[in-house]
Design brief:
160 residues, single chain, disordered N terminus, mainly beta, Immunoglobulin-like
Length: 160
């Protein structure tokens, strides 16, 4: 058997092992009719005291739910915010708290850069790229759901 065939076989086996182990797969949490996917938090930039977290929340039930609050050990406060263009200032964005976020029945809400996000204020330490951080989400119907967010320095604005 040629060296290239052996190498190709080893690479294929390694790929199958990774796929079977779930390595590289997006973490997903399902609890009480709510599915959380693509949880990621932006790594700290310099000495900035704040960061943002992004995710997709899907509601598989026939009743709308609401994200009421969120918290993590890494920040003094976690709050749902939304970015929007500043009036009279082309290209400039501002953000404001959203209050509870409605997750429609059989629907989903995406938290993405430039839109809805979880604002982490008063960071208690640096969030290092490649790490993880647990954020607990509190829903009106689904209750408390703790989610392991991957810390990344680069975050895609669109779903994968």
């Amino acid at each position: 058997m040629s060296t290239s065939r052996i190498l190709a076989g080893l690479l294929a086996a390694a790929g199958l092992a990774l796929a079977a182990s779930g390595a590289g797969a997006d973490p997903q949490v399902e609890a009480r009719g709510v599915v959380i996917s693509e949880p990621v938090v932006r790594a700290s930039i310099g000495k900035a005291p704040n960061s943002a977290a992004y995710l997709v929340i899907a509601n598989t039930t026939g009743v709308a739910d609401r994200l009421l609050s969120a918290a993590c050990a890494c920040a003094a406060k976690v709050e749902a915010h939304e970015s929007h263009p500043m009036a009279g200032m082309p290209g400039m964005m501002e953000m404001s708290p959203t209050g509870p976020v409605v997750i429609p029945a059989h629907g989903s809400v995406a938290f993405r850069p430039g839109g809805k996000h979880l604002m982490l204020t008063g960071l208690k330490g640096r969030l290092a790229d490649g790490g993880s951080q647990v954020i607990t989400l509190v829903f009106e119907h689904a209750g408390r759901i703790s989610v392991d967010f991957q810390v990344r320095s680069k975050i895609a604005a669109e779903p994968r």
